[in-house]
Specification:
The protein has 391 residues and is α/β, with parallel strands linked by helices. The protein is 40% helix and 15% strand. Helix 1 packs antiparallel against helix 9.
């Protein structure tokens, strides 16, 4: 039994998330307030005790840890030769955009989606084109007619796909993955699947790797995976790219080496092996704890905030909260909440224009901290509504 209720103080630790005011509570960036698995900590101590931190090689056992995990947990067989080390999923995405597309081409996304996708596309001189997800007031689905209309455009050469989807927390089913794969193959569009959130799922649920669905998906895709989100070790910079097609793999490999994002630091290797080889029980208990937090937040919002709707998702530790009944400008709303209560959450506009009336909240924290955050959220919403009614 692991203690996820421990209120570890992250202030003064150079934490990006906790670089906030003294009375502020950050529930924004996707990084957990839980100490990582004991096996990972032990592996890092052993590496530190060696006392030499020179250049590293990435041995077969690093890749074997991924292979074993994806085989037993996600039913996907990965050959070692398909795999490449990279320092993170975001560096991988940016490098891949540069290497497999050309300046001025379209890179397709499905908004609302992880905000850094936009940066990776626009900063490299490519065009963002979105087939917006359709929200029916309760959940999201894909408009396949619109998706194909965007894929058929001659300048569309890459689709960045989020599986499971951040910020809505959706696990895409096999039929959907197969249909996306068939359409992308038909229109000569490569799929880059970001699967970093895949291990944070509702107990009893499973995500399906995009490349595992069919031969078509396997041959026409690039998959980015990592232990960093699930095991709270993003600062150790460790990830893996999986590419079946030999020609495409060569391009990706040249890209990450030219961009100098293919070399491991002294702690990335041992931490990754300890995560996948020794920390499965810890992850299972983590998912139980996170689901308890999500269930509590749902009940709290339903009871205390009648004008707010929580979009339920089976993956990630992020809440996607529909605020359109009180406000269509979540930038203004989140700024107001932070100013008046100290709660720091993400505005939905970051994830696309169709996210403008939504808020993203990170609930991967001890339960007492979650309750504090939800009470601040309620206070902020009520103050905002009162002020608006006065105006």
């Amino acid at each position: 039994m692991y203690d996820f209720s421990k209120m570890t103080n992250r202030r003064g630790s150079d934490s990006y998330k906790w670089d906030v005011g003294e009375n502020e509570l950050p529930m924004w960036v996707a990084d957990m307030d839980f100490e990582t698995a004991p096996a990972i900590i032990d592996a890092l101590h052993q590496r530190v005790d060696h006392k030499i931190f020179g250049y590293n090689v990435i041995g077969d056992d690093y890749f074997a840890a991924y292979q074993s995990w994806w085989e037993r947990r996600h039913h996907f067989h990965i050959e070692k030769e398909w795999m490449m080390f990279v320092t993170g999923v975001v560096p991988a995405i940016s490098s891949i955009v540069r290497k497999v597309t050309t300046v001025g081409e379209n890179v397709l996304i499905m908004s609302p989606v992880y905000n850094i996708f936009y940066n990776s596309i626009l900063n490299n001189g490519r065009h963002v084109i979105s087939s917006d997800l359709v929200y029916d007031g309760n959940e999201y689905h894909i408009d396949f007619e619109d998706l194909e209309a965007k894929l058929v455009l001659k300048q569309t050469s890459l689709m960045i796909f989020c599986n499971p989807h951040n910020p809505i927390g959706k696990i895409w089913n096999r039929k959907t993955l197969d249909r996306i794969g068939q359409l992308c193959k038909k229109h000569h569009v490569i799929v880059l699947s970001d699967e970093i959130h895949c291990d944070i799922v509702r107990p009893g649920k499973e995500y399906i790797p995009f490349a595992s669905v069919s031969k078509t998906n396997l041959e026409n895709s690039i998959t980015c995976i990592a232990p960093t989100k699930a095991f709270n070790m993003a600062g150790l910079h460790s990830a893996c790219i999986v590419v079946y097609d030999e020609v495409l793999r060569h391009k990706v490999n040249r890209g990450i080496n030219i961009d100098e994002v293919a070399e491991a630091n002294s702690f990335a290797i041992c931490a990754t092996k300890a995560a996948f080889n020794e920390s499965e029980t810890w992850l299972n208990e983590l998912n139980e704890y996170i689901q308890h937090n999500k269930d509590y937040a749902k009940k709290f919002i339903e009871k205390e905030l009648k004008n707010i709707h929580l979009v339920e998702g089976d993956a990630t530790y992020l809440l996607w909260i529909d605020c359109h009944r009180i406000c269509h400008d979540s930038v203004e709303l989140t700024q107001f909440i932070r100013l008046h209560t100290g709660l720091y959450v993400s505005d939905g506009l970051e994830y696309g224009k169709n996210g403008q009336a939504f808020i993203r909240m990170n609930v991967a924290c001890p339960f007492e901290r979650l309750k504090d955050g939800l009470h601040r959220f309620k206070e902020g919403i009520e103050l905002y509504m009162k002020e608006k009614s006065v105006r």
